[in-house]
């Protein structure tokens, strides 16, 4: 505004000029300059001596970059738009350049609020294998499977990261014996390392004892931040421990990491298997691959060596078969993990059973699954492009 003594007339003119500017498109982005935050100021002054010629308007425009090739088009369009307002005489355009911060805000807006920085695993040339561990029901052993696979892979010499994406029921830090938060260096988070595995969990960002009541968009941002702000280094494998079911996080994972593949965990129980199938078949909508199924709690070995099938049998094989049909691919039953007291105890104590009791049948089964994940070749050809092109 011109000084502190603006008259209603210049105020009204300023409003009218701003409205007129909503019609000016940025020549490259093809969105109104007003929406892009490019209009820095509109100053209207009326020189009484020259009032008959109309008001003098100076429009401050910030270009996205200094050498913007479309500068002259923009000046012409802004001038023309301002001159459509009755009472406006001379129009000047005062060009400036956006600050780095404004540019970053603009990029965030253009990318639908997803924002920066980038997720390294989502880049087309990333060689990191990304597996999302999913289940239909809760309590089937997803987190136990994730923790054991991670340390087994690390013990085999691979660089491994784990994201505990189960925002409401995070348990990975305890299972891996991590009790400290990531170290912050500028904008970057250095994840704690446990048993050779880099671990990040929402649990590390929530003050103890406080409930987490985040909804879809916030979950999406939290996951985005885990994936982008954490310094992972060169990972061979990234595992994501998903919350049970087919909720917001599963969809965010599909969007943020389109090349991730799903590993479904189920129990042998038919009712659990049916729900597990739903978790797997979400992949047909999100165009993710389903790698395979891990059946957990398959049986309890008796002192006489016989197997007690506490939860029935056949659930894992059934899910694999039905998901193969649903996805039109081959979804394998990757392993059957028996019930094992030492698995539970090891998880509670923070050192997974594949390390504390590697020859137990449960650890052997989990290590086999890990070997399968590690030795799969992963070419760049035939990668899915996923849902969101932005
Ligand atoms: N094979 C097994 N033998 C014995 N105990 C097991 C086995 N698998 C999992 N458990 C125990 O069952 C409980 C649930 O396992 P876990 O937390 O891994 O499941 P989850 O699917 O991640 O659950 P949630 O849905 O709550 O995230 C844990 O106490 C774990 O130690
Ligand atoms: Mg869990």
TrEMBL record:
One of its GO terms (molecular function) is ATP binding. The keyword S-adenosyl-L-methionine does not apply. ATP binds at residues 136-143. Keywords: ATP-binding, Hydrolase, Iron, Iron-sulfur, Metal-binding, Nucleotide-binding. This is Iron-sulfur cluster carrier protein. Binds and transfers iron-sulfur (Fe-S) clusters to target apoproteins. Can hydrolyze ATP. Homodimer. It comes from the Bacteria. Residues 15-93 form the MIP18 family-like domain. In the N-terminal section; belongs to the MIP18 family. In the C-terminal section; belongs to the Mrp/NBP35 ATP-binding proteins family. PANTHER family: IRON-SULFUR PROTEIN NUBPL.
């Amino acid at each position: 505004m011109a000084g502190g003594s603006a008259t209603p007339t210049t105020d009204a003119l300023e409003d009218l000029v701003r409205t007129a500017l909503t019609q000016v498109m940025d020549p490259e982005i093809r969105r109104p300059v007003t929406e892009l935050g490019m209009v820095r100021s509109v100053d209207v002054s009326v020189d009484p001596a020259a009032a008959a010629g109309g008001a003098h308007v100076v429009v401050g425009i910030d270009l996205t970059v200094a050498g913007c090739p479309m500068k002259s088009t923009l000046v012409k369009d802004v001038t023309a738009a301002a001159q459509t307002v009755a009472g406006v005489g001379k129009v000047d355009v005062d060009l400036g350049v956006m600050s780095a911060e404004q540019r970053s805000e603009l990029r965030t807006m253009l990318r639908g609020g997803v924002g920066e920085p980038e997720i390294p695993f989502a880049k087309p040339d990333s060689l990191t294998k990304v597996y999302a561990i999913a289940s239909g029901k809760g309590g089937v052993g997803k987190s136990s499977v994730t923790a054991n696979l991670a340390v087994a892979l690390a013990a085999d010499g691979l660089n491994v990261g784990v994201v505990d994406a189960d925002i409401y029921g995070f348990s990975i830090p305890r299972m891996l014996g991590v009790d400290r938060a990531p170290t912050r260096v500028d904008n970057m988070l250095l994840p704690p390392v446990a048993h050779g595995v880099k671990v990040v969990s929402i649990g590390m960002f929530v003050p103890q004892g406080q409930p987490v009541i985040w909804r879809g968009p916030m979950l999406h941002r939290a996951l985005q931040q885990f994936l982008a702000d954490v310094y992972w280094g060169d990972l061979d494998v990234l595992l994501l421990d998903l919350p049970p079911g087919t909720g917001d996080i599963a969809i965010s994972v599909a969007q943020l990491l389109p090349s991730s593949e799903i590993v479904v965990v189920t129990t042998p129980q038919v009712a659990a298997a049916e729900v597990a199938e739903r978790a797997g078949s979400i992949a047909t909508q999100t165009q993710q691959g389903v790698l395979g199924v891990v059946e957990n709690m398959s049986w309890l070995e008796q002192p006489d060596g016989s197997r007690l099938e506490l939860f029935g049998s056949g659930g894992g094989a059934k899910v694999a078969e039905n998901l193969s049909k649903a996805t039109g691919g081959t979804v394998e039953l990757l392993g059957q993990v028996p019930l094992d007291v030492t698995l539970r105890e090891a998880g509670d104590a923070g050192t997974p059973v594949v390390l504390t009791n590697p020859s137990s049948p449960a650890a052997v089964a989990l290590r086999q699954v890990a070997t399968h994940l590690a030795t799969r070749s992963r070419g760049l050809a035939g990668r899915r492009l996923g849902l969101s092109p932005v």
